[in-house]
Amino acid sequence: MPHWTAPQFKTLCQPHAASLPNGVVYSANEGDGSISEITLSTGDVRTAQIVVLPHNVQISPDGKTLLAVGTSAAKTGGHGAHGGEGKAANDGNADSHSGSGASLLILNASNVEQVLQTLPSGSHPAHVVTSPDGSRAYITNSDSDRVSVVDINQKKIIAEIPTGSFPHGLRLSPDGQEIYVANVTDNTVSIIDTQSLKEAERVSVGKAPVQVAFTPDGKHVYVSLRDEDSVAIIDTSTRKVVKNVSVGRNPIQLYAAAGGSKMYVANQGSDSNPDDTVSVIDTKSQSVINTVVTGKGAHGVVASTDGGFIFITNTKDNTVSAIDTSTQDVVATYPVGPNPNGITYRSIR
Where is the YNCE-like beta-propeller domain positioned along the sequence (predicted)? Predict the structure, then answer.
């Protein structure tokens, strides 16, 4: 059964607590199969063990449930490195219903140790996003080169959509019509039509795309290129790369904030030489305007609902950093579970 650890407390800048939004941040701690819950109003951090090694978490549109994907905590290895190291050998037709111990957990967002549903995820789930109404979950399966579509009400996989090689990060367009998927090992982004549930196009972007992020107006998609230390920008009307922006070492996740005027890119670096920076791109000029130092192995990125704060998981420091988007200052750092990767935000109204 999952259980909570004793509450912890944030370690930096307590006077800034009142300025933080009234919300909760969740980190997926792949190192020990846990989820940490940060209550921003108090700075309390609680960590719950779950039955998978979560690589990614996603709050539902209504804020009532938390989706977590990963392989069984009883097995070793977890999701593994980005980019296909250790990828299972297959011809692209692997059975994603196979018994790998992987699953999609639906958790009570107000009580994360409560598992509401355990659903199929495909055999090697990496990231998950939901449809705008929360009825469907879209999950990248890195070993079988496809996106699994889970009908949460029917409790089953209803479609499996072929993509490029080693699909990893994915995001839904603001209008809900398309999903962009980063395919790490064939240097492309798949564009999936959410009505037909088919790949509409595949765009070449550069070396080792790991994650994508839409601007709020849906006009551009930013793609982290881990092996080029850069970000490609796709014009969604033409589905072509229009610019490439140099950032820090080995960028992983990225997210728009501050009303869409800025894109935040977490630079993880390597295992032997982790980076600790976040590159801030001005989305109008499409250039880097600032670099923020967070913690070692900067990885996951999410924004508060109002865009006033960005939250970063630091995989090598086992922390989450909060950045004020008006000043670009780190205003708080929270201790979480080991090897935090994915991160998501829930507003409390």
Answer: 122-343
Distance between CA atoms of 209 and 166, rounded to whole angstroms?
Answer: 10
Residue 81: predicted pLDDT = 59
What's the chain's average pLDDT? Answer: 90
**Helices (H), ranges, 138-220:** none
CATH of the domain at 24: 2.130.10.10
Q: How far apart are CA 36 and CA 341, in angstroms?
A: 11
Which residues lie below 8 Å from residue 285, measured CB to CB, with a gap of 6+? Answer: none
Compute the distance between CA of residue 19 and CA of residue 42 in angstroms, rounded to an integer: 11
Is residue 186 within 8 Å of 165, Cβ to Cβ?
A: yes
CA distance 133 to 152: 11
Number of domains in the chain: 1
Name the residue among 239, 229, 234, 305 with its Cα closest to residue 265: 229
Q: Does 125 reside within a domain?
A: yes
| Residue 3 forms part of a structural domain | no
Kindly report the number of other CB atoms within 10 A of residue 14's CB atom. 11
Widest distance between CA atoms in the chain: 55
Q: What are 270's two structure tokens?
A: 């390597």
Asked if residue 271 belongs to a domain, the reply is yes
CA dihedral 65, 69, 2, 295 (to 10 degrees): -100
pLDDT digits (tens, 9 = 90+) for 87-145: 332 323 333 333 457 899 999 999 999 999 999 999 899 999 999 999 999 999 999 99
Taking phi over 0 as left and psi of -120 to 50 as alpha, with beta for the rest, 124 belongs to: beta
Inside any domain, residue 1: no
pTM of the model: 0.91
